[in-house]
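User: My advisor, Dr. K., asked me to get a structural model of this assembly before our group meeting. I'm new to this, so sorry if the format is off. These are the inputs:
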Amino acid sequence: MESQWLSLLDVSIDFDQSHLFFPRIVTWILVILLAMIVITRYRLLVPGLKRAGRVLAGREGEFDHKRFFGTLALTTAYFYLMSVLSDVFPNTGYSFLIMSVLFVFLLSLLYVDHLTRRLFIILVLNALIAPTLAWYVLAQLFRITLP
Amino acid sequence: MDILSHLTPMFFGLIAAGTLIGIIFGAIPGMTATMAVAVCLPLTYAFGLTNGIALLLGLYVGGISGGMVPAVLINIPGTPSSITTTFDGYPMARRGEGERALKIGIVASVFGGLFSAAVLFFFAPVLADFAIKFSYVEKFLIILLALTVIASLCSNMLMGIFSGVLGVWLSLIGTYSITEGGNGEPRLMFDFMQYYLIDGFSLLPVLIGIFGLTTVLLDAEKGFKDDTGQGPISLKGGAKFKFSVFKGQLLNLVRSSSIGTFIGILPGVGGSAASVLAYSQEKNFSRDSSQMGKGAPQGIVASESSNNALTGGALVPLLSLGIPGDSTTAILIGAFTLQGIQVGPLFIGNNIDTWYVMIIALLAANVMMFGIMYFAIRHIAKVIEVPKYILYPLIIMMCVVGAYAINYGIMFDVWTLLLFGIFGWVAHKIGLETVPLIIGFILGKSAEVYFVKSIESYGNLSIFFTKSPIAMFLWVLIAVSVAFAIYLRVRNSRQPTIES
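Assistant: The format is fine. Below is the predicted structure of the whole assembly, which you can bring to the meeting.
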């Protein structure tokens, strides 16, 4: 009798399909948990999504659109242009150096509240010195691969 | 003795450098020990094993300790684990005892750190010896237990479990590795992704994205506003620190350090839980707790000794079971793998020299943290004034180096960093829990191997319950962790006002 019950728990795994066995279980658990979250929180879900839309659109709450989307845009451009430039200067780290100087300067500029002449000079020096130092120490001294 | 050959001036210099950089990171609000390790990771690529360990452990200890500086001076915990330091540190600083408060915290920190290093030294080998006997079944159950403990202690258990399972799901993207006994077939992705994701997402770019870039995005969204509304308090003048303040604090030190170490051993629970628990225990059990919350040294002692005790504690499951104890050790596991170390039950026995070097590095990092912070606290305090418009662009730059160099120059890893940076921001917004997600991501592939191999070996699901007394005991622990979480939730719902 006991062995009959235990046989219900018998499982065999087909080797050809074994790559899907565990992921299927995990996906099902994930779907069930998601359903539970939606069921238990559905009253909060729709208002929450609407509020998120209003915040992102700038109609409600405090959200610094310029700095948030500026960070995303600059970071994406930084990565993309670094990738493009690394084909021009392969295995030298120059692509990293050139793009980092530009990126650090522009992102600092984006984050500054009140730009003065003195602060501008500090930002320029920071953008020139820090990436150059990082490039020299990592790529030249430590021989670490850079784009 | 081979160990002595590792203990070079370079080794100790890197511990000192790591500790100092870690303190600086910890002292800047919003930047954590985890971020310090993530950002400085590329520096370890150039070092050998022992020197890499020296730098990483220095960063870890320094990062946790540095969190007390803004907690005391501007009422903002530099790291989450310093939350309770603000309760008494800031009132002390306001009445002109800022330097005294910090030095009390520094001494308590070094006690907690050394205490937990001793526990690590004696306890981890015992646990590892025990874990060597584990079969695939017990190994799978250990991972299940880790994820259950993490998820059950999250602020929302359902979201915690979901986050952990999502982490496991993300880790399964890629091929089912032939070296692990799989069939080498891809899953959970479209055909066009196979070129990039054949081995799945690399661990470190994922971690660097979630702990580095996400922090920058969260602050960018707020527009880098100063949360304090006031400048830091000056350390000049005020009451002097004397060691006599620790008279009668031995019990507090030992209890708080024990709590910190124990919480550290539990996977993924985090430093804030350790310090809150130690603080509340001191409040409940001390003879006079009337001044706690108004600037009592005993509050700082409880908070700082417990959060530094976390460091050694979190290394126990990492080095003996291969399970990270917190988010920083989650990055350490990736860094160790990079250095050729496979952490787990066999690690200590097979790498005895490395094990001793780690213990020495941990002890030295605590001693150096004490030396640096105690004698240079006035200079370190100035770090909190460094503007984020200088720091954050440099952090993203260093994140790029870390992600790109991890696999010797794969641009897709840099895009992974961006992808998971944005994902981390979205996760924060919708209430996903980062730590279970990360631990799930780290342990997911191992969980699959252990689960599938168990079934292939025994052919029946009942084996997970009946394999051995250890397996049954692990199920009891899983049940206890869930029951304890439910008990805490019920108790908290009856006591809506949390005593601060």
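One thing worth pointing out at the meeting: The radius of gyration of chain B is 22 Å.

User: Perfect, thanks a lot.
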